[in-house]
Each structure stands twice: as C-alpha cells, then as structure tokens.
C-alpha cells in the first residue's frame, strides 16, 4: 500500500494555522508523544500499510463504489453522485480509522480500546476492530443516544464491547466524550482512547484524517473513470468532521472543485441549545484538548447543543475545518432537522437507499444547491446507512410521511 498519509498540515506541534495543538494535563503529554511517534512509525512501515490495505479490501469491502443517483438527478436537474460509505462493513465510514487505530494500539502493546460514540457508528466500528485484533473495548455513550440508537447498542454488545452510559448534562455526544476522557485519564498506559473524529489533541486530528482520506483518494480516481473529469461540487455533513475531511482532503488543491460542509441547524439557529452549527455561529476556543471553533455559553463554557442526528451534536469541530473556513476553501452552511428528514425519505423513496440521518444532512444540502440553481455535478459523501435510525424516524416522523404504526 502506497503511503498517502503525507500532508503539509498540521505542523510538528499539531497546528492547522492557529487551530489544533495539544492542551492536555502534563501527565498525558508523554503518552501523546508516544502515540504520535508510534503513528509516525506505522505510516512509514510497509508491513503496517499492507495489513491495513488487506483489511480495507477483504474485511471492509473497499473500495466503496460511487453511484449515479439517476432519479434524484432527473428530479432536481443536476447530476448527483453518492460515495457509498454506507456499504462498508459496519455501515459507515468509521471503520476506516477504527481499523487503523486498533492496529496501532496492538502494535503499541495496549490492552484496551476506549471511545465515545453518538450515533453508535463509531462504537460499532471500534467494537468490530477490537474483536478482530483481540483487544478489550469500552464505549461511552449518552443515555439519550443509547435509547435513540438501540440497534447499534445491541451490535456493540454482541461484538463484546462494554457500553457505558454517560448520565450527566444532556446525556448525548459531548457528555460521552467527557466520560471517555475521564476514564482514559485513570489509565493511559494500558488503554488507548481511539477518538472517533478529527478532533482531540494532536496527533488525533491528523491521524483520523489520514485514515479517512482513503474516501477522497478513491473518489477522485472513480469519478474520473466515470465521467472523464472531477466533480464540480463536494458535499459532506460536518459534526466533528471525519467523513468530510475524508472526502475533502484529496480535492483541496483542485481549485475548480467547490467544497461544502453541512452543519446541523437543529430546531433553530436562533435559540441556544437548539442547534450544533459550530462553524456558522461559534468562535475560537479550547475544549477536549484542542483549539477550534466552538459554541460557547455566556460563561465561555461549551454550549449545550442539539441535532436530530446523534452523530452531529457536538459543540466543537475538527481544527482543520476551522482552518479551511478561515481560508475560505470550504463553504460551511446549515441544514435543519426537517430538511434532513425530508432528504432521508427523498433518497429512500427515489433511489432505494436509506441513509443515516447524519448523511441525510449532506443529501439535503446537495438538493438545496440544486434548488438554488447549481448546474454542475455534485458528489455527496453518503457516510452511513440508516438502519440505526429507522425506529426513531418512524416513531417521530412516520405519520407525516404516511407510515402508520403496525403495533
């Protein structure tokens, strides 16, 4: 496997411009240095890269295909393509970095993987990777999300992971991160915190970005083979932002490709605690060991956030996204709950593909571009499938879309 993990940013201290870095207790600095050194060794180790490539091909099922959404394209008057990360083993893009992190942990002699999860996709992927390489696994998940994403909770437990509820605050993703960090601090020697997005202290934003960059590297080749050129637009949802960086990275130097990130507007952008539009309404700040845009309350603490998508309700965002916003390379807009659910049903009923609610934000943003007059091609990162969401969607929105309860 060729090493495609070399990029200009971050710098040696983990900064993307002014964002990123490592704001952690002194007792963790040595540990993070060891992780960074081990990753630097692994990404230049042909044996490690070949093993990862083997698992991507024969375990995950990569490359994931690009699908031309003919029915959506016909209806909206623009060529819409889907990068089908929903077809990966475990149902989302998360397996891409979980395998990389699990192999790294094994190489470092760790005994346990710990992590947070919101929608449960990262938790399922990490539990899967842990089972594959023979490590213990603890997954922290907000109580609200445990109820909402019950199918994924069951999968994690079947795979042998301990699912540990986060019971403070809003009991969602931010609180799960808090709980996982607290557990990691108690024993950073025998376990590794396998962060689930391009967030956290250095080297995690870089490391997760690198593992996820396979999405865009594949897509660039596939789209040229399909069309003879590159897409005019890329669209991905942005919570922490791993699936988006996975698609965007290969295209950042392609000036003719417009790049769009869709943040969750939730119920209302005008009400604090009713959205998670970090890049749209936030400001620079430090939380969970890194500097990035974040949503702050009146005391300057992380603001309570909300999204219908459990994987997007986080009050910060990956530091490279903040850098790309300030540089003007990526346009970050918003999609509300109702728009996302409309797109969820639109893709399901026009193309026979049920997306994750997170991914439905990206679909909705692409349809918005088409409605606004965009005529160029649009490549959407369909980051996950909606199996985990169907009970919740039918319970909350079924009547609106003509689905009557059979119970």
TrEMBL record:
UniProt GO MF annotations: tryptophan synthase activity
Needed co-factor(s): pyridoxal 5'-phosphate
Lineage: Bacteria, Pseudomonadati, Pseudomonadota, Gammaproteobacteria, Vibrionales
HAMAP family recorded: Trp_synth_beta
Record field: catalytic activity: (1S,2R)-1-C-(indol-3-yl)glycerol 3-phosphate + L-serine = D-glyceraldehyde 3-phosphate + L-tryptophan + H2O
Gene3D superfamilies: 3.40.50.1100
Gene that encodes it: trpB
Coiled-coil segments on the chain, per record: none
UniProt name for this protein: Tryptophan synthase beta chain
